[in-house]
Amino acid sequence: MNNDFHGSGHQPSPQDILNHLSKKWNVSITSEEFARKLDENDSLRNLRDEFYLPKLGSLPKVDKSRTDLQSDCIYLCGHSLGLQPKRVRTFIDTWLKDWADLGVYGHTYGTNPFAYCDYPCIPTLKKLLGAEDNEVGVMNQLTTNIHFMMVSFYRPTSERFKILYEERAFPSDEYAFRSQIRYHGYKTEEAVLTIKSRENEDYIRTEDILELLEQQGQSIALVFLSGVQYFTGQLFDIETITRTAQQYGCVVGWDLAHAVGNIPLKLHDWNVDFATFCSYKYLNSGAGCVGGIFVHSNHFNKEYPKFDGWWGNQDETRFQMNTEIVRGLGANGFRISNPSIHQCATLAASLQVFEEAGIENLRTKSKLLTQYLEYLIEHEMNPSSTHFKIDILTPTDPEQRGAQLSFRIIGVDVRQLFTELERSGVCLDVRGNVIRVAPIPLYNSFMDVYRFVLLLQTIKF
């Protein structure tokens, strides 16, 4: 949609593009016609057909007196659980057929042999993470992987023992950090170091992180932040923070649960030590599905403590039943147990769609969708005479956020508003007094965004 800017020497912002298209089409950005024309000119619009959109009539909270129960809901909750790719059924049926036809031989024969079922996921994950060969492993779930990575990478000493993470980190991450601190014999009140936003601000300034590293970097063993902060939707400057923290001798890991499949990543080039991620949010693999790790190749030839299991063996030695492990190279050497074939099948189905779409293309659309949502909120909701206002916590700079905007609702009870939105067929997420909204470029349309804001304007209590 931004071809008109090619050759101009100017990299247009998402708002530049919206303004340009509004002028070109002679249509107001706030009109329904503008939303429809954006969808008509969206080169990725057919991706929506790759996913199941829940119908209004199937959702438990929708007002069943509605006459449009066979219509698609407005699903803006992919930051919590991605929608099911239609290809999943084919991938699962293939596994079931191999199991039925081959039994135990399915481990090494068939369409997708069970013993190697994670390997088809690796090439696309490498692209999404910006990883090199052997740096990505598919294993376990997110918090489990945090613990396993900290076994190797959190090595506290009497001088360097603190863990730096952000205020309002996802609670499970914080549970892991605190339990690891106690396991190593340190006091959480001494070893926990949280970076906070400034007073009367909602997201954390990069310069404040760098200043804290300068002040306390010599006592920090591990910096472990979220790539995209789950509550505010802030995208941290992974490259700058990693480089600076390592200059002070810190090990740097990232929780990429809300980043992978959301934004392009270059973990190898950014020299990230390690990262963990889940796959059921932006990667659409299904609730509780298999997660993964990234380990930089810088660490391949170093000795680290590890908790071993038989799947950490090299492929050639795994079934020899040796008493000593012959560790696999790179991230695969951190694996513990055999991967779940059905979980890897659902992940592979979704990754196939990513492979065809391209993460850079998805990011371009994502910026436009999110900017469009922000524009409608600021120009339709907040200036109007509605009985509540929306304060956006997420950074306004498109380069400092992913697909998510977090709304603080002012003037009405947020739970009451959330309930009414659910009754109207909008799938969202509420945390405290904040509603988190995520238009996902794979399956959300500009009309989804328009209809959502229209509902916000017209909803009655």
Automatic annotation (TrEMBL):
Complexes and interactors: Homodimer.
Pathway where it operates: Cofactor biosynthesis; NAD(+) biosynthesis; quinolinate from L-kynurenine: step 2/3; Amino-acid degradation; L-kynurenine degradation; L-alanine and anthranilate from L-kynurenine: step 1/1
Keywords associated with the record: Cytoplasm, Hydrolase, Pyridine nucleotide biosynthesis, Pyridoxal phosphate
A GO CC term assigned to this protein in UniProt: cytoplasm
Catalysed conversion reaction: L-kynurenine + H2O = anthranilate + L-alanine + H(+); 3-hydroxy-L-kynurenine + H2O = 3-hydroxyanthranilate + L-alanine + H(+)
InterPro entries for this protein: Kynureninase, PyrdxlP-dep_Trfase, PyrdxlP-dep_Trfase_major, PyrdxlP-dep_Trfase_small
SUPFAM superfamilies assigned to the protein according to its UniProt record, in alphabetical order: PLP-dependent transferases
Molecular-function GO term, any one: kynureninase activity
Family per similarity comment: Belongs to the kynureninase family.
Main localization (coarse): cytoplasm
Cofactor (UniProt): pyridoxal 5'-phosphate
Protein name as it appears in the record: Kynureninase
Residues that bear N6-(pyridoxal phosphate)lysine: K281
Pfam families registered for this protein in UniProt: KYNU_C (PF22580)
Binding site for pyridoxal 5'-phosphate: L142, T143, F170, P171, S172, D173, S226, D255, H258, Y280, W310, N338
Organism: Rotaria sordida
Function (record text): Catalyzes the cleavage of L-kynurenine (L-Kyn) and L-3-hydroxykynurenine (L-3OHKyn) into anthranilic acid (AA) and 3-hydroxyanthranilic acid (3-OHAA), respectively.
BP GO annotations: 'de novo' NAD+ biosynthetic process from L-tryptophan; anthranilate metabolic process; L-kynurenine catabolic process; L-tryptophan catabolic process to kynurenine; quinolinate biosynthetic process
EC code: 3.7.1.3
Compartments reported by the entry: Cytoplasm
Signal sequence interval, chain numbering: none
